[in-house]
């Protein structure tokens, strides 16, 4: 779809930032991983020209980019066996050497920071500032673990087998690569499946730099359903790390039931912000604006606001100017060659398919009785003239989505807010707990004691009072309640403990397990 915009006049991709230039820089930086015409897979210490490259397009403008090279199940099993061999050698490497090699890998990635960020812009549509932040969070976080690892592994050892990582596309560096480097630092080999929807080139470059530093990492691409038997159930695997939706997460959890494998499965939940007996509207407005970053395509986004009826008019007075001010468009479009890259709240969603899916869900909610409070238009965005804009979704807000529609109970994973009005504390809590567990929630309430009492009934892992909560960095724990999380929690000591074993055979990790749930202070 090509849609005219009133903001496209004279805009063009900033020189030096095109996909072809980015790929050429990758080929120059790591020719072992980037052929001139395709990406390679990595296992057993070798980059392999294997797998059928998936035809991929960037959500930024619909043009072709390098797709993940999709391997077959037998190759995935070979990769797992090779990663086990790597694991057996690596687990005996002294921690001082592990620290040195991980530091070398992080330093090399820092040297290529802007290239990694540019790949994130093209592959998953992140605005430039947020793409650089994703890279920086990964590298700064791993440096913190390097300093803390001696204390964290005291009395503990590596797992019996490598860690298998299956993650969503939205945070290739600060979630997936960060986790792999910590897993390696703790004494394990790590293998990851490239997210099919985006991030292949970014992860390929990061893994090439990690491999050059002597780290036991592997990267493979393929269909999740076809590779599941190898990457989830293979007996060689010591732990499974998963980040994704509840549908796929449920299938993964079912596949793990009889294996007894260590695991942590981060799944979606409908994160809510309750507003009750509140008056600090300027404070809330600042949080609302920041909440639209990356088009709410993150696990800790807040797409649901639960508002006390008596405050609804004041909420709208604060909310509507914010949503009208949200800036979106082509992340690399400038009017003049020397202009800085645009300061956007978000670019495209991950694909035109996702955009169309959101449009159907919005139409369904409105046709069944939801009230459209705000609907932006593509013309509000800034684009290159004539570009494909089919992956872009203007901000939308819907009041009272009916229970029979998808937006009532599920996370949209896009720039779509839903608002529910309530009259009692009981209704507030019921609406905030609509999805059987969440990762985060917040309460806007002038009376902190009341907010803390209410928060005790909210089924979320982290609850903010007059502020949002996030995944967190360094030693901050992260997990979920209800169906939003299965297995060990992560963050700081919890992440390292999840990928190591202690002397006590009856050790009970913090987490949400079939037989028990144990929550740390949050």
Automatic annotation (TrEMBL):
InterPro entries: Ald_DH/histidinol_DH (IPR016161), Ald_DH_C (IPR016163), Ald_DH_N (IPR016162), Aldehyde_DH_dom (IPR015590). This is Dehydrogenase. PANTHER family: ALDEHYDE DEHYDROGENASE-RELATED. It comes from the Bacteria. It comes from Protofrankia coriariae. Keywords: Oxidoreductase. Residues 52-496 form the Aldehyde dehydrogenase domain. The lineage of its organism: Bacteria, Bacillati, Actinomycetota, Actinomycetes, Frankiales. Gene3D superfamilies: Aldehyde Dehydrogenase, Chain A, domain 1 (3.40.605.10), Aldehyde Dehydrogenase, Chain A, domain 2 (3.40.309.10). It holds the Pfam family Aldedh.
């Amino acid at each position: 779809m090509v849609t005219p915009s009133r903001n496209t006049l004279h805009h063009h991709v900033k020189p030096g930032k095109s996909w072809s230039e980015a790929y050429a820089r990758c080929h120059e930086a790591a020719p072992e991983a980037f052929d001139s015409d395709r990406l390679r897979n990595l296992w057993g210490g070798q980059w392999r020209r294997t797998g059928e490259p998936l035809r991929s397009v960037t959500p930024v403008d619909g043009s072709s980019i390098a797709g993940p090279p999709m391997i077959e199940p037998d190759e995935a099993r070979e990769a797992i066996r090779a990663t086990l061999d790597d694991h057996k050698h690596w687990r005996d490497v002294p921690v001082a050497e592990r620290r040195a090699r991980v530091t070398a890998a992080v330093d090399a990635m820092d040297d290529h920071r802007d290239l990694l960020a540019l790949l994130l812009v093209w592959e998953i549509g992140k605005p430039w500032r947020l793409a650089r932040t994703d890279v920086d969070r990964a590298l700064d976080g791993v440096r913190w673990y390097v300093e803390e690892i001696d204390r964290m592994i005291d009395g503990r050892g590596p797992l019996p087998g490598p860690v298998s990582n299956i993650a969503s596309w939205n945070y290739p560096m600060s979630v997936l690569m960060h986790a792999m480097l910590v897993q390696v630092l703790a004494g394990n080999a790590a293998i990851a499946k490239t997210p099919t929807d985006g991030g292949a080139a970014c992860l390929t470059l990061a893994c090439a730099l990690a491999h050059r530093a002597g780290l036991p990492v592997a990267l493979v691409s393929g269909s999740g359903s076809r590779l599941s038997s190898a990457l989830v159930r293979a007996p060689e695997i010591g732990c499974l790390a998963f980040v994704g939706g509840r549908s796929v997460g449920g299938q993964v959890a079912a596949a793990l039931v009889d294996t007894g494998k260590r695991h942590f499965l981060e799944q979606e939940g409908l994160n809510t912000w309750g507003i009750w007996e509140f008056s600090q509207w300027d404070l809330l407005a600042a949080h609302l604006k920041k909440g639209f970053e990356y088009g709410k395509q993150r696990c800790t986004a807040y797409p649901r606001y639960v508002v006390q009826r008596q405050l609804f008019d004041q909420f709208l007075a604060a909310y509507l100017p914010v949503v009208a001010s949200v800036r979106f468009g082509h992340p690399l479009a400038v009017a003049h060659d020397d202009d800085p890259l645009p300061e956007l709240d978000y670019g495209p969603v991950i694909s035109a398919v996702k955009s169309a899916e959101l449009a159907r869900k919005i139409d369904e909610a409105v046709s069944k009785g939801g009230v459209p409070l705000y609907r932006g238009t593509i013309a509000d965005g800034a684009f290159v003239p004539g570009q494909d804009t089919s992956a872009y979704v203007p901000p939308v807000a819907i009041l009272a989505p009916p229970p029979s529609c998808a937006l009532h109970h599920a996370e949209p994973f896009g720039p779509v807010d839903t608002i529910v009005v309530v009259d009692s504390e009981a209704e507030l809590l019921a609406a905030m707990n609509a999805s059987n567990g969440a990762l985060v929630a917040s309460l806007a309430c002038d009376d902190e004691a009341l907010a803390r009492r209410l928060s005790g009934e909210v089924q979320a892992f982290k609850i903010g009072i007059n502020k949002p909560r996030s995944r967190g960095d360094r030693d901050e724990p992260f997990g979920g309640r209800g169906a939003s999380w299965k297995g060990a929690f992560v963050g700081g000591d919890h992440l390292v403990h999840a990928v190591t074993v202690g002397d006590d055979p009856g050790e009970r990790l913090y987490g949400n397990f079939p037989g028990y749930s144990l929550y740390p202070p949050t």
